[in-house]
From TrEMBL:
Single GO cellular component term: acetyl-CoA carboxylase complex
Source organism of this protein record: Bifidobacterium lemurum
Record InterPro entries: AccD/PCCB (IPR051047), AcCoA_carboxyl_beta (IPR034733), Acetyl_CoA_COase_Trfase_b_su (IPR000438), ClpP/crotonase-like_dom_sf (IPR029045), COA_CT_C (IPR011763), COA_CT_N (IPR011762)
Name of this protein: Methylmalonyl-CoA carboxyltransferase
Domain (CoA carboxyltransferase N-terminal): residue spans on this chain: 35-287
Bias (Gly residues) ranges: 19-35
Pfam annotation, one family: Carboxyl_trans
Amino acid sequence: MTDIMDMPAVRGAVAQGGSLAGGEAGPGGGAGTGAGERQPLRTAVVKAAELARDAEANARTRQHAKNKKTARERLDLLFDTGSFEEIGRFQGGDINDGKAGAAVITGFGQIYGRKVAVYAQDFSVRGGTLGTAEGEKICHLMDMALDLRVPVVALIDSGGARIQEGVAALNQYGRIFKKTCEASGYIPQISLILGPCAGGAVYCPALTDLIIMTRENSNMFVTGPDVVKAATGETISMADLGGGLVHNTVSGVAHYLGEDESDAIDYARTVLAYLPGCSDEKPPVYAYAATRADRDTAKRLAGIVPDNERQPYDMLDVVRCITDYGEFVQVQELFGASALVGFACIEGRPVGIVANQPNVRAGILDVDSSEKVARFVRLCDAFNLPVVTLVDVPGYKPGSDQEHAGIIRRGAKVIYAYANAQVPMVTVVLRKAFGGAYIVMGSKAIGADMNFAWPSSQIAVLGAAGAVNIIHRHDLAKARDQGRDVEALRAKYIAEYEESTVNANLSLELGAIDAMIDPEQTREAIAESLRTLAGKRRRKRTTKHHGNQPL
């Protein structure tokens, strides 16, 4: 990390208790120097270095006592070694009065050799609160990030708006909100919540692409426990109100729960490895050479999915068989668990993967999984990641709780995301795809480019049993009245329906499925499709400003 304390002359001067290396400088900074002599240091430089040293020592004392890292220690973990370049180190400070600077650090560094902008709030300085100086630094950094077309990472650890500055501090939040919206979909934005984030401040991370929290010390809420108690009488802890676990499992606000700060920061680095610097660029490409192990792994697919449509299995096993090295970086792993979304590579090229999870409520679509899928597809489309969809879905979750929670509105978000996506989209139906859920999960009708199905797959309006109960209800009732074996008759009708209607033949004939493939061909079929679609370009079909998507 570039730091004023890294300058050898400054380090030596500070170590000597502030004495100036090379003698006292004159007004011009160079008086009294001769050939071969070092440039003397100004008193102000040494004073600034001492302030920087003391500020970091104070930060370590305060943060380590809470089992938290300092802002600069976090930056060391985030960036490649020695790559951080700080801007505005002492902006908002008063060196003569002993104030080191604002409560936020801004600058640029490299993650896996690629440039990234960062602002890191420093809780050891006035509780990390945001005032005019902090707002100016953050907005300036975001302007630079937009000009340079690089991602922005925010390390959040703040007491919120600085009360002493009143409405001026609130105005700065408004400016940051606007900048974040301006950057949305153009450059990736990731927020790491590594301390408190309360009040209006929560909307800064809420507007970004991904929010990462930790199990301890990480909190987000609009109104804190004290206000909640005063307003409603409810007594609740900070963790139960807005801790990392709550926002990862219940609200869906967060996208990853880190075990600690190091884990959270490592996840941010990993995600950025899959994303381009901006929406005008393609994601990075990594070297990959196919091996015999890939073929052996592909063959495992034949034995993962049970023939019995009611028997669960882990979709993660399927995903790991089709991705490079079996790697899959999940997003929102703990929320809406009947669906899986995340990043992977196929032949060295990053893709977004969306899949139903039969291990959780049979992979059904509900309000949470719908939100999860829709948001992720939009993220992939914004940053040019092809979307690979693996389908095994029995339909939407029924019940008044789902209807009242807005399954119509939230399910429509999935439709909007897929229908408007213009990146390459490849879909594979593994076992079953019924009703409206079949249509919305990357079907050909909604805009997917290439669609495949396994030989045993079932595609229909309803599953065979449900369809028979409706179509043959009169025949079954008549048989019951006549004392015949109703279950045997139902089984006969189900077998006939499965043979004539539920299999994928009709979809093949209609062109809704491009090919029937054996399970072990899945990875190759996806990879070949992505190679074919590599030249796909975006098209603007109308002159509208934007659509009015369901929110």
